[in-house]
């Protein structure tokens, strides 16, 4: 059953989290301390931003709502990311916001739909549930190969921990799905 109140709360939460992700990522960028730099390197990857849109889709029962909310939450994150930089000139702010905003509006619906499809129980939803942790594994592996010389030990540590955590999440999701499927079969 559709509840306007739950839709409003879900939408507000997705927009707030999007704005927080964009703002936090931008604010962490300027800090040189090791822990903050590691957090920035992790948040400034594609997978946390993809996870935002995915989770927005996961929170909606309707596929259309999932696609729309995912795109809007990503666009809010992009707008917040560029709005936080007080030193940005309009000449650089506007084109970057529009370009990444367009990417958010194109990619967001696909991620939101994947989040919605991840709600399917059992093996049918497993590939969708694995999408974000697998993206994290692929992205961190690529960054470890290509960018570790630029980011040094902070990047290497942050990306290695992220990759190990993503592999653990993949294994846990797969094991959970197998266990649930076995339980359902044994109950029949």
Architecture overview:
- The chain has 188 residues and is mainly alpha-helical.
- The chain has 8 helices and no strands.
- The longest helix is centred in the C-terminal third of the chain and has 40 residues.
- The model has no long low-confidence stretch (mean pLDDT 91).
Integer average pLDDT: 91
| Largest sheet features | none
Number of helices: 8
- How many strands in all? 0
Shape: flat
Which features characterize this protein?
188 residues, mainly alpha, 8 helices
What is the topology?
Blueprint: H1 4-29, H2 34-43, H3 46-58, H4 63-84, H5 90-117, H6 126-129, H7 131-146, H8 148-187
Summary, kept brief:
Helix content is 85%, strand content 0%. The mean pLDDT is 91.
